Prior knowledge:
- With 115 residues, the protein is an alpha+beta fold.
- The protein is built from four helices and three strands.
Amino acid sequence: MNAQRRAPRFMKISQVKNALSRVVNGVHHDGTRVVIEKNGVPIAAIVSFSDLRKLVHYERSNRDQEVEELFAVMDRAREAFKDVPIEEIERETDRAIAEIRAKDRAVRASLAATG
């Protein structure tokens, strides 16, 4: 496979239909990436299996990083409130949720009155 990555090739869906075998061979042999357009709008792509594997790995890595960041936030919150009784945290959480719900209801009522 070509080590130097070229810009993707843009093709209309009708062109891809008529030359699918040639397009797939190009993707496989020289790593061409093909963006398929319908009415001038990109709707899909054809990439090598190697590129797909890299994409899946990238998505998993990002997901793992996001989970680690969420746990870090939870750990910081736990540390910040370690001396606060759980009952107080629950009371304040319930109060905050009720306040947000009341604001949401007021906004919806206002929109319904003007809409």
